[in-house]
Write a structure and sequence with these properties.
The protein is α/β, with parallel strands linked by helices. The chain has 3 domains: 208 residues, FAD/NAD(P)-binding domain, CATH 3.50.50; 116 residues, FAD/NAD(P)-binding domain; 112 residues, 2-Layer Sandwich (Enolase-like, domain 1). The chain contains 14 helices and 22 strands. A hairpin with a 5-residue loop joins strand 21 and strand 22. Helix 1 runs parallel beside helix 9, helix 3 packs antiparallel against helix 4 and helix 3 runs parallel beside helix 6. The chain starts with a strand and ends in a 6-residue tail after the last helix. Bound molecules: flavin-adenine dinucleotide (FAD). The site of flavin-adenine dinucleotide (FAD) has 36 residues, from helix 1, strand 2, helix 2, helix 3 and strand 4.
């Protein structure tokens, strides 16, 4: 029997490893359990980090061909070295997962490799790949086992990660597919679709809803779709995929995707070299033994928690993708910090109203707070300020005139309720809105805050001025 811990965290994604670090910083004796050979979870190994490495590299490839000549930088037609691009991605992943391993050591956190199983209050079993089990005692358990790729509802699917791929396979392709069909027009599908479109694939996105990016602000998704269409992506919206069937043999291997209009009508097929299934993610609880331990799940298979991350059994908590809420790394991280603080007797808290969402395409999309559609549905009286990057000096200088900043503020109090940005660097710019909203700031506060010139962020200030009074440069 190993020694007793104050806290054992099962899963080392951004939720789990951040929770462990915070717990150790607060003086708790901490261990993590991870079934993979590397730490960092989906985000660092097969999610946020490798996708951003490929998004950046493919963006540079596209820039070299399309933007550099206009800036007077003649480099000739760029040539793709996919192997080297993938090596850059792999090196980025390695340095990040090694970084987490270093942080575990630095914070004196014990790392168990194996599948963690909740045996009940205070007891965790760790089963290694040979089937050997160690039982560990702990005062608190945090379940941070994340999520896995979701299927296409009603479709019998074999993901071989070569022809029919999940996001994991789409980060590993050994050649550029001639035709990539992406099932699902959400963030992951559009980011990875953009990568392969920039590298030369014809990309067709089949989406069930009538708009891309699901719950994002309507203005944003409309403009974004126009931009991606200009970049060569094709969209079949309001289309339900009913079959994905492997075709051909050897080098001629491919797949046929069958879809039909959601509103009714004839089915159609598309031939693809590769099909990316990007219909979302589902909570991952396999092997945890939750049912036997008495941990209750909700109707979507997520671990049910109260407002303090407590599950149905004492001393067992859950955070991240495995519980309700947006499946985002930074949401998982903030929950990790909050639950560690609660376990240490402090007042941990996450403000779910101010969690930014970013799509790392070119241009980027970033959003925080309410969308216009949500405010309408809630019957909130609001004002809108919108400023296009085409009227921003820095954007023009950088050949990045596409997109806009949009500020939504309460009609009576002027409090900022939501900010949505489509534009180069939107994912960095959104944080001034997030900080403002954390402090309950108004459009006037944002509009009267001095912004350095010339910066893209001036468009956010101008949009705030637009919500409050009038922009200057429009
Ligand atoms: C392609 C892609 C791109 C993404 N890009 C972004 C992005 O840019 N920004 C963003 O915010 N989010 C992004 N996400 C989502 C993000 O990765 C997740 O929201 C985040 O990883 C969730 O963190 P987590 O800690 O809850 O779980 P995970 O990161 O999924 O980690 C869970 C860990 O638990 C381990 N585990 C599971 N069961 C057990 C067990 N029984 N015993 C031991 N270990 C176990 C798993 O092996 C895994 O390591 C992306 C996801 C994908 C797939």
């Amino acid at each position: 029997m190993a020694e007793r811990y104050d806290i054992i965290v099962i899963g080392t994604g951004p939720g789990g490893y951040v929770c462990a670090i915070k717990a150790a910083q607060l003086g708790l004796k901490t261990a993590v359990v991870e079934k993979n050979s590397t730490l960092g979870g989906t985000c660092l190994n097969i999610g946020c980090i490798p996708s951003k490495a490929l998004l950046h590299a493919s963006e540079m490839f596209a820039e070299a061909e399309h933007a550099l000549p206009t800036l007077g930088v003649d480099v000739g037609k760029p040539k793709l070295n996919l192997e080297k691009m993938m090596a850059h991605k792999d090196a980025t992943v390695k340095s990040n997962v090694d970084g987490v391993a270093f942080l575990m050591k630095k914070n004196k956190i014990d790392v168990f490799t194996g599948t963690g199983k909740v045996l009940g209050e205070g007891h965790v079993a760790i089963i290694d790949d040979k089937g050997d089990t160690v039982e560990v005692q702990t005062t608190n358990i945090v379940i941070a086992t994340g999520s896995d790729v979701a299927d296409i509802p009603g479709v019998d699917l074999t993901i071989d990660e070569k022809v029919v791929v999940s996001s994991t396979g789409a980060l590993e392709l050994s050649s550029v597919p001639k035709h990539l069909v992406v099932v699902g027009g959400g963030v992951i599908g559009l980011e990875l679709g953009s990568v392969w479109a920039r590298l030369g694939s014809k990309v067709t996105v089949v989406e069930y809803l009538d708009t891309i990016l699901g719950p994002m602000d309507g203005d944003v998704s409309k403009q974004f779709q126009r931009m991606l269409t200009k970049q060569g992506l094709t969209f079949k919206l309001g289309a339900k995929v009913t079959g994905v069937e492997a075709t051909g043999k050897g080098v001629a291997k491919g797949a046929k995707v069958t879809y039909e209009p959601v509103k009714g009508g004839d089915a159609a097929t598309i031939d693809a070299d590769v099909v990316l299934v990007a219909t979302g993610r589902k909570p991952f609880t396999n092997g945890l033994g939750l049912e036997k331990a008495g941990v209750v799940l909700d109707e979507h298979g997520r671990v049910k928690i109260d407002e303090h991350f407590h599950t149905s059994i004492p001393g067992v908590y859950a955070i991240g993708d495995v519980v309700a809420g947006p499946m985002l790394a930074h949401k998982a991280e903030d929950e990790g910090v909050a639950v560690a603080e609660i376990i240490a007797g402090q007042a941990g808290h996450v403000n779910y109203g101010v969690i930014p969402g970013v799509v790392y395409t070119q241009p980027e999309i970033a959003s925080v707070g309410k969308t216009e559609e949500e405010l309408k549905a809630e019957g909130v009286a609001y004002k809108v300020g919108k400023f296009p990057f085409s009227a921003n000096g820095r954007a023009r200088a950088m050949l990045q005139p596409n997109g806009f900043a949009k500020v939504l503020a309460d009609k009576t109090t002027d409090k900022v309720l939501g900010v949505h940005i489509v534009g180069f660097g939107a994912g960095e710019m959104i944080h001034e809105a997030a900080v403002l909203m954390e402090f309950g700031g108004s459009a006037e506060d944002l509009g009267r805050t001095c912004h350095a010139h010339p910066t893209m962020s001036e468009a956010v200030k101008e949009a705030a001025l637009g919500a409050f009074l009038k922009p200057i440069h429009l």
